[in-house]
Each structure stands twice: as C-alpha cells, then as structure tokens.
Design a protein that fits this description.
single chain; 174 residues; alpha+beta; four-stranded antiparallel beta sheet; 4 strands; elongated
C-alpha cells in the first residue's frame, strides 16, 4: 500500500516513464490493458488518479451511482439534462460590486440580509441596489440569463426600504 509521503515521488516518476512502462503500470493498477489509442498524457493522468485513490480513497458510492445514472441517460437519450441549481444554504455570502461599492448578502433560513435588513428575496435586494427591476440570482451571478447581457445603467442611489414591507418607498426619500 502506498503511503502519503511516497505519493509525491510516485507522481513525479510518472513524467519520466517510457510509454511502455506507463502502459505496464496501467495494466498493473487497473487490471486491464489500456487501449492502443490512449495517449501518454491520458495514461499519466489516469495513473496519477489511481495512485491518489490508493492513498486518499476513491469516489463515494453515491457519486459512483450518480455517474452510472448519467451514463445510462447519455446512452439512452444521447444527452444529459442540465442539473438543477442547488438551493442556497444558510450562511452563504454573496458578494457583488455595483457602481464602485461592494455589496454583501448573507443567506439565512428566513431570507437575505443586506445592509442590516432582512429581505424575502434576492431580487428585492438587487432592485434596491440597482434601482431597477433585476433578477437577484442573475445580478449575483448565480444563473446565466437570457436577454440582457449587461446590467442596466445606474439610475441613481437606491431608495431606502419601507421598514414595514421591505419595499422601496414611493416618491422621494431623504
């Protein structure tokens, strides 16, 4: 069994090995011969992965099962559907610069904290920052959106929110 302190040396040695030696090492570690079309670079990468796996462990059963599902989907349908975005976890911090000012939003169980106040949606925060209707997830770079590729021009400073509703006050505010 390979030890952590030996791993660096083994990985470094791969670069100096001949193609024949790499192929022999592949056969030894993977218990099958590599195809004749596999390049030297791919052999080195595969062997490096296998050596690291021996020291640190392989992928989890969950990850292996997911890869098998994706493989079956690719074979059956010729494509893999995009994964749905993971929900934001409480404690996550989103940072965005807008008009030379850095804005930080903290995700909580009950909403989004920005500038000392809690809001019900990320889009509400984005609207307060920009002064225009803007998708919060898009503004903070969480999604790629269609349509606009740039943020709208800054219409001026954002209006302060009404304390009761959290919405921008209508009219002028001081």
């Amino acid at each position: 069994m390979l030890r952590k302190n030996q791993l660096h040396t083994e990985l470094s040695n791969l670069q100096g090995m001949s193609l024949e030696a790499l192929r022999a090492q592949w056969t030894k570690l993977f218990k099958l011969e590599p195809g004749p079309w596999i390049s030297r670079d791919v052999l080195i990468r595969g062997l490096a992965w296998k050596l690291q796996e021996a020291v640190f462990g392989g992928i989890s059963k969950t990850a292996a099962r997911r890869m098998a599902q994706l493989s079956a989907e690719l074979i059956d349908h010729g494509a893999i559907k995009p994964a749905q975005a993971n929900a934001l976890k409480p404690g996550t911090r989103l940072v965005r610069e807008w008009q030379g000012r850095v804005h930080e939003v903290v995700i909580t169980q009950g909403g989004f904290i920005w500038s000392g106040s809690t809001y019900g949606s990320l889009s509400q925060v984005a609207r307060l920052i920009t002064g225009t209707r803007w998708s919060g997830p898009r503004f903070f770079g969480l999604t790629e959106g269609g349509g606009r590729t740039e943020l709208p021009p800054n219409p001026g400073p954002p209006r302060r929110p009404d304390k009761a509703s959290g919405r921008p006050r209508s009219g002028l505010s001081s």
